[in-house]
Design brief:
The protein has about 525 residues and is an alpha/beta fold. It has 19 helices and 14 strands. It has a 6-stranded mixed sheet with strand order 1-7-6-10-8-9, with helices on both faces. Strands 4-3-2-5 form a 4-stranded parallel sheet, with helices on both faces. Helix 15 runs antiparallel to helix 16. GO terms for molecular function: 4 iron, 4 sulfur cluster binding; metal ion binding; NADH dehydrogenase activity.
Length: about 525
Amino acid sequence: MNAELPDVLDLRVVGVPQLTAGLDLARRLDLDMHLKVHGPLQPMPGERLAELAELISLKGKGGAGFPFGKKLRAVAKSAIRRGVRPVVVINGSEGEPNCRKDTLIMNRAPHLPLDGALLAAEALGARTLVIAVTRDSTESSMRQALAERGLSDRRGQPLRARVVRTPERMVSGESSAVIRAANGGPSLPPGRKVRASDSGVANAPTLLSNCETFAQLAVAARLGADRYGSIGLSTEPGTVMLTVSGSVPRPLVMEVPSGVPLRYVLELAGAPPMPQGVLSGGYHGKWMDGMSAHGATISRASMDAAGGALGAGALLPLSPDTCPLGECLRVANWLAAETAGQCGPCKLGLPAAAAGLAEVLGGGGRTALEALRQVTQSVKGRGACAHPDGSVRFLTSSLSAFTDDLAAHALQGGCGRPTHGVLPLPSPGYQEEGIPSGQKLMVDWTLCKGQLICVGVLPELVRQGPDGYPVLADTPVPLHLQGETQRAVRRCPELALRLEEAPAPRNAIPPSGGRKALPRGGG
């Protein structure tokens, strides 16, 4: 199926809307309508703004969950120490295929995150605002919103504001990748850890936070801490924006108060009454089994206790009629191709992990399962950015959540169910800078004699199998590996390797070892 999510999903609200107020009246709130719905917003001193963020326990809504007040204080302190003006960045780079909540906010209520960002900029004395986006529709909406406020990047203005476009990639939304893009570089993590509060855009202290975080700040500044905290849990007040996809009739964005039962949210979205699992937090998140999900509520603490993660607010229930590990394999292959290509754990480890999972699902037994666990353990904690750890978290959670299916595949050759492809992935042809090339490495087993030259030339995508023949990662060739892949093809003495156009996703699980003949006609 592999249905890519549209930019703007249908909206469902539980209780009184906060961030989505007025969206029942208009498709998009321009500045005039925005002010009619939300009212004016008064500037606030930096200390008071930080106190407000702390009173409402505001944390980043992009997945990391870092306290906003603490981040605001760190940027202010660094700017004062260095004697430079800081920069404010709205991170709307929603490159994960199962997340659309920020896209909905920026497309339909763009002035709400702008309110929060401008409030922070005024409090910090910032004179530069950067808005990072991933999609055409979002870029158009935010540029229109800036024009409605008379903001631009022209010299001489009290505050210069600009929109930066990032590719639709898993790694493009990481803070360091957004800052690198804002500085004119590629939208990739730099491979070293530098705190944005110390040095970010133009080497200045930078307050970077997620789009929803700034929108929540704007709502709280208007309501005050007490009124804001009257909705939701006392420990996690306010509402939460969610993207619900997977085994549902149609994907939705939902705004719900914190503390609402997860089962109620899934029921409203049309999920199966008892899903076999719910992926929480997206493709860097964790699986919850059906029973654990049934007892959880929408909050960081509750979902953590149930084995899940609120993360970036993505929820993906899985119906009982699809193979859960087959679904996970599709995602694992995509995550492997999303590597930034800057460290061994990502370049080598993630393709090896995806190939290892395919071998397990093909009936590789306990040996293949143990090899997969060793690969994931070797990747954990050693990456140059968060992508390897997040991908391994997804993989290890998959193995833990579906133990019966894992045993059926590893020991009996399969669970007997097809893979329907209900977890959304980008459609073919979505490729941009630095992401999969759209080609796939294939081997003709009628010619291959197992000389394994390809393993030495291209260890990122090829490894030696237990039978002495090469095992190929079942993933498109990333652009940064195209040169090495072509070299491996040229150096094969038996001319058994070829580059083909990546075939459309299939439901079938590849057999053990990935041994399959070249498809005819590229398919």
